[in-house]
Amino acid sequence: MKIGFIGIGKMGRWMSENMLDAGYCLTVYDTNVEAMKPLQEKGAIVATSILELAKQNDIVITMLPNSSVVEAILAGTDGLFHSMKSGGIIIDMSSSYVFSTRKLAEEAKNFGLTLIDAPVSGGVKGAKAGTLTIMVGAEEKDYSKVLPILECLGKAINLVGQSGAGHALKAVNNYLSATSLYASCEAMILLNKLGIDLNVALETINTSSGQSFSTHYKLPTFILPETYNSGFSLDLLLKDVGMVNNIAKDTKVPVLLASLIEQVYEGAARTGEPEQDHTEIIKFLEKISNERLHKKEVVS
Ligand code: NAD
């Protein structure tokens, strides 16, 4: 089966490699030509434009930074809507904005196309291993058509609702993740100030009720050893929290903590290095508390 893949970034690079390994005939496109080279070496066809990719493929996956980019690539003058054959399916696996997705999905129908949202969780590690969690917003009949494709990218795949449901759930999931990471980092700084060994603290928290993905994985892997190489940028996490605040406004449902969490990550984005990893949130908290974490080795 021929598939097009647009957005060969930190995630898309591994997701498309898994599709090649699964035997799909893959055409890739990214504005960064260098990013496509490793895939070309593995047998992918490199397209020089969206138009070229769209004409060759009835199924196209997008893995792009945000809804503005997705809107341009789907609905722009030379975009997928205007160039794919009627009957085609677009799967947006980016973390996009639910209401933009719903609008695009309606527009897609006018061109005889189907837009499915299928954002992912599991990071670069999950993308590489093909173990992503995939949350799908689609009609049941369309979901069953694309399920075999998704199965070579992820393990936990759920149809969570109609168009946009996947994107809504993904934003909410990342809001929870951002909140727990923030709280866990703040806790580490406080414990450090109190002179408590952070290795011992983490070991104890991880068998107590304060445990989370942040305490089990992010703190010992990326933060305490100061590697900051999770592969998920702080800007992308800030985008996700911002989307939850926008959903809250658009639906008139108060999500009080989300505005605080957005401001914290906003502060970190403004004061930190460009392109910083989301785990570098700790540096912002170190700055505002004037407290530096010292312990670097973690007992596994
Ligand atoms: P990234 O910035 O590494 O990759 C995005 C890619 O899109 C880049 O290669 C960029 O060149 C390309 N691109 C941008 N504009 C383009 C255009 N107009 N035409 C063609 N290509 C274009 O981002 P990423 O970390 O791979 O994340 C991609 C998406 O997945 C985002 O929506 C993100 O929120 C989501 N996500 C990321 C992670 C993670 O751990 N990195 C985890 C889950 C979900």
TrEMBL record:
InterPro entries: 6-PGluconate_DH-like_C_sf, 6PGD_dom2, 6PGDH_NADP-bd, HIBADH-like_NADP-bd, HIBADH-related, NAD(P)-bd_dom_sf. The keyword Cytoplasm does not apply. Residues 164-285 form the 3-hydroxyisobutyrate dehydrogenase-like NAD-binding domain. The active site is at residue 170. Keywords: NAD, Oxidoreductase. Pfam families: NAD_binding_11, NAD_binding_2. Belongs to the HIBADH-related family. GO terms for molecular function: NAD binding; NADP binding; oxidoreductase activity, acting on the CH-OH group of donors, NAD or NADP as acceptor. This is NAD(P)-dependent oxidoreductase. Gene3D superfamilies: N-(1-d-carboxylethyl)-l-norvaline Dehydrogenase, domain 2 (1.10.1040.10), NAD(P)-binding Rossmann-like Domain (3.40.50.720). The keyword NAD applies.
